[in-house]
Specification:
This protein is of the alpha/beta class. It contains 12 helices and 17 strands. Bound molecules: flavin-adenine dinucleotide (FAD). The site of flavin-adenine dinucleotide (FAD) has 32 residues, from helix 1, strand 15 and helix 9. InterPro entries: FAD-bd, FAD/NAD-bd_sf, PheA/TfdB_FAD_monoxygenase.
Length: about 400
């Protein structure tokens, strides 16, 4: 089998890459390791910003509204330090229009799958890629238990353990932070609260001074609590323990509404290059970068990676030749690597505030908390935990 472009991985970023290619006039083929009916539960990447929503809409007209209809914009963001509120930001109608939407990843993936089907993009399910072999003539994609496929280009969207990245010889660099979180999705109560607000607590006094984040979405809540070590991570995530501590942070009736529990560790990793030496493999999403989840820079920037990779591939196909391909694909790789570095730094600001690693960091946070009593600037700076710095690279129009 020979294809022009193969996308490896039918996660949200791979599906987006396929739609972006289709919008550029190329019909790719997707290879996905999992079965089509495998459940992929959980809120996971819960927030899609306006810019990625607009990108999606260009690839699949109507997608922005589809996700907004199934999403929610919170009424306010509210921040507490050791139980004392220090910052609140209301979301009025104008902010709502340009903000984006809080929508569980499962909903986003379902909408993207529908759009791929409608666009006639073929997905081979239960087709785990074993590796890629790249030379100047193309990419040989090897599978477990089926014949190889040849492709002119491969988009590696196979997530954090990407075999495409590894077998194309691209290194991942960075580190793992000590920050570990339990993540719980809660179904909404029969009578919904009048207001739905994102709430972040530094050192919540009701749960042993642990950091706690609560994010509403349509039909439920995402609750994150930070654990101090691996033993705590296991303990805090058992249903009995959750029912014991949850009433200290939310209405006790949510104890009967636990829908999904998972754990998460913070990584700060980025691929050295987003392409291989032959410029035929382009990495996107978590195959290329892993950030702390708060701030939503993972999936949001993955959507922009996908659009950018599709553009580089379409241009390379339109003007063949190694030199031209190098220029176009290298531009993609450099730009998305720079964006990933910026995203990682931005997220790190939030991590440093939530879990300062040094005495100086802890003192700085206490000082900010003290000043936040009278200084709105200090309150704003402290509100950069958990999400990190907002906004985008200087000189760039987009935020990812
Ligand atoms: C518990 C949890 C909580 C999270 N919370 C947040 C959050 O709050 N905010 C946020 O922004 N992000 C969050 N994330 C991260 C978010 O889920 C990712 O950013 C997003 O899924 C990345 O999408 P992706 O398509 O790049 O990778 P993935 O979603 O990992 O998709 C990769 C796809 O490739 C497939 N695949 C893998 N190997 C192969 C192979 N060899 N051959 C073929 N297919 C293969 C996989 O089956 C999968 O379908 C969370 C993740 C988890 C697990």
């Amino acid at each position: 089998m020979k294809v022009q472009v193969a996308v490896v991985g039918a996660g949200p970023v791979g599906l987006t890459a396929a739609l972006a290619l289709k919008a550029q006039g190329i019909t790719p083929v997707i290879f996905e390791a999992d079965a089509e009916d495998k459940l992929r539960p959980g809120s996971r990447a819960l927030f899609i910003h306006n810019q990625p929503l607009q990108e999606l809409d260009q690839m699949a007209p109507g997608m922005r509204q589809t996700l907004i209809d199934q999403g929610l914009v919170w009424d306010a963001r509210r921040y507490f330090y050791r139980g004392r509120q220090f910052f609140v930001k209301e979301y009025d109608e104008r902010k709502r229009q340009i903000f984006g939407t809080s929508v569980p990843q499962a909903v986003t993936e379902a909408a993207l799958r529908d759009a791929c089907r409608a666009a006639g993009i073929e997905t081979y399910w239960s087709a785990p890629v074993a590796g890629v072999h790249v030379d100047d003539h193309g990419v040989e994609i090897a599978f477990e238990g089926r014949d190889s496929v040849m492709a002119d280009f491969v988009v590696g969207a196979d997530g954090s353990k990407s075999v495409v990245r590894k077998t194309a010889g691209i290194k991942l660099i960075g580190n793992t932070s000590d920050s570990r979180w339990v993540i719980i999705d809660l179904d909404e109560l029969d009578e919904e609260p009048a207001r739905k607000e994102l709430t972040f607590h530094y050192a919540h006094p009701g749960v042993g001074q642990r950091n706690v984040l609560m994010i509403p979405f349509k039909g439920g809540w995402r609750l994150d609590i930070e654990a101090r070590n691996d033993e705590e991570l296991r303990r805090l995530s058992t249903p009995e323990e959750i029912r014991a501590w949850l009433p200290s942070v939310m209405d006790a009736r949510y104890c009967d509404k636990i829908a999904w529990v998972s754990t998460y560790r913070f990584y700060q990793l980025v691929a050295e290059h987003f392409t291989d030496t032959h410029r035929r493999v382009l990495l996107v999403g978590e195959a290329a970068h892993l950030f702390p989840p708060f701030g939503g820079r993972g999936l949001n920037s993955g959507i922009i990676d996908a659009a950018s990779a599709a553009h580089a591939i379409a241009q390379s196909i339109a003007s063949p030749g190694l030199e031209q391909r190098k220029i176009l694909v290298d531009a993609f790789s450099r730009d998305r690597r720079a964006a990933a570095d910026f995203n990682m730094e931005s997220a790190a600001i939030g991590v440093d505030l939530m879990a300062p690693a040094t005495i100086l960091g802890r003192l700085k946070r206490e000082w900010l908390a003290l000043r936040s009593r009278w200084s709105i600037g200090a309150a704003r700076a402290l509100s950069m935990g958990p999400n990190g710095r907002a906004g985008g690279r200087p000189g760039q129009s987009g935020i990812y």
